[in-house]
Amino acid sequence: MVFYFTSSSVNSFPYAIYMGKNKYENEDLIKHDWPEDIWEVLMDCAHLVKASIIQGCHMNHVNVVYTPRSNLKKTADLDVGQIGFHRQKDVKIVIGEKKVNEILNQLEKTEVEWFPDPAAEKECRDREERSEKKAQIQEMKRRVKEEMKKREMVELRSYLPLMKVKNMSSNQDGNDSDESM
């Protein structure tokens, strides 16, 4: 089960925030994520973490660690719910100081519970991307073919092939047959 929230705290543009119910569901979300998944609403995420974890409610502040998806490293020796990082310098930490009920209430109003299949969703999205790329390549090939035809037609209508030196002849040094006079 995945919880979806809609946050509009950044530039009044709605962002989708999602989190798994537990570490096993988060594991699937990380495994089948999309490359454009980024964390732009980190303070909202910090408030959600603080509110959804029993220990977080009793703590003065919580640390939310974030990094681009490409920096996540999952090896076989890591437990479920654990991840590593390729480059430590790309890891950032946001500290959620105190609970802001206004943000939490706004997020909780938009909460949607859903049972997705992350692998199927990612495969569908990847399939769409591949078909778009294929269409772009076909369009480019079509344009190149049209351009070649245009060049060929211009060449056929042009006199340039006739104006080559080997095709030209001159009557300067030719034998004149005007001696009959």
Automatic annotation (TrEMBL):
Chain positions covered by the region annotation Disordered: 123-143
PANTHER family per the UniProt record, alphabetical: COILED-COIL DOMAIN-CONTAINING PROTEIN 25, DUF814-RELATED
Assembly behavior: Interacts (via cytoplasmic region) with ILK.
UniProt domain NFACT RNA-binding: residue ranges: 40-86
Name of the featured protein: Coiled-coil domain-containing protein 25
